[in-house]
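User: Need the bound-state model for zinc ion:
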Amino acid sequence: MWYMTARIFVQRGTGPLSALLAVVAFVSLSAQTRITPDKNSYSVADDIKLGQEASAEAKMQLPMLNDTRTDDFVEDVGAQLAAAIPAELRHSGFRYTFDVVNQKDINAFALPGGPMFLNRGMLEAAKSEAEVAGVMAHEISHVALRHGTAQATKGQKFQIGAVAGQILGAIIGGAAGSVISQGSQFGLGAYFLKYGREYERQADLLGAQIMARAGYDPREMANMFKTIQAEGGSSGPEWLSSHPDPGNRYNSIVKEASMLRIEGNANTGQFQSVKARLGGMSPAYTAEQIAKGQARSGTSSTNSSRNTGGIERRSVTVEPPSSQFRTYSPASFLRVSVPANWRDLPSTDSQTYAPDSGYVETDGGQSAFTHGVQIGVAQGGSGNLQRDTDQLVQTFARSNPELASAGRARSETIGGRTGITTPLSNISDVTGEREYVSVSTTHLRDGSLLYIIGVAPQVEAGTYEQVFRKVRQSVRITD
Ligand SMILES: [Zn+2]
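Assistant: Bound-state model below.
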């Protein structure tokens, strides 16, 4: 079975540069710093869609704590903060949600449109509820100011569908730390999880304002950043590397705090009991365990069973590939022919062609198939085909942990262009059997990477590789 990670072919809802340049300014308390959102060529709906897709994948791939008491606590704190977002920065359809990841590293991240993930390690390191609220207010500010898409606006144009998987790639890559090195900040995910100094300054100041309005002391945010720094070690700097110090961070926040009036008292009184509860649980997973696929929601650290996405293992029998081929156009610039008895499997963000019974749709919208091909586009990075292909395979390996090399990559013409076909092997989560995977790539004109993946059980690899080759030879590109 092949878990799909990269996403393709979803056009953005609005025209590419229908720049939404409306600059919103707001002032709510007399002396506080005015924060003005940057220009953003994405729609609010784009933020929502991106965040929802990446959030669904994050929940599938990260070990969620799923502890009601802890979740209730962060939801209570988060709801008070979200209610304190200035009216000018509320966006229709944004939904602030809060989940705890059973991960040791001191980290948290928020996705466009509102989904926030807090590591258990962050809660355990915090000295008070207000320190937790400080990190959350900072993250909420990035979301409300739409920093992810604003940052992407400054960068290269991209297809919205290509991004969600990469956001996750960056999340997992970030989580993996040293395990997945260079390639981890693959592509555009970095836009959504790593901010520049100016956006950090904005999130600090708006975060302080939100805290005060919600009823928390904003100076606790400054204290939390000190706490994070002090924890140091291999786990401390993770949050700081994606939220770099804009300079004089502690003093700037304290100065802003001095201009703010704390409205009421938001303290839920749950922090100490939640902390004690977390302390009594078996240890949280490390980034390395997560990267190696050893950590999954609801499993203990000794249980290395993999996430099967709710699929029962079963044997799969499919009709042999027809010798007749049928031609499809999965994107305006692309034509491809596949065996006539394979179905064109509709999905919002990928194109898979597979025989009946060779395809499973799992909870959460992941697609998995035992026989067939999948075609997609991933952002290139270097312009070097081999390097970009290696990065792509690395991305796939994060959701297919048994993926391994199965021989030398060879050059092959794809759509009239220089291409590479890389043979790989994997263990199918559907059947538990070894499967053959071929990944063929070539560059599109904009530098992105067109890939064609073939998947078949190892015992049928010979037959299917002939079919995959025909499919690859049928590709026509007119970008
Ligand atoms: Zn930040």
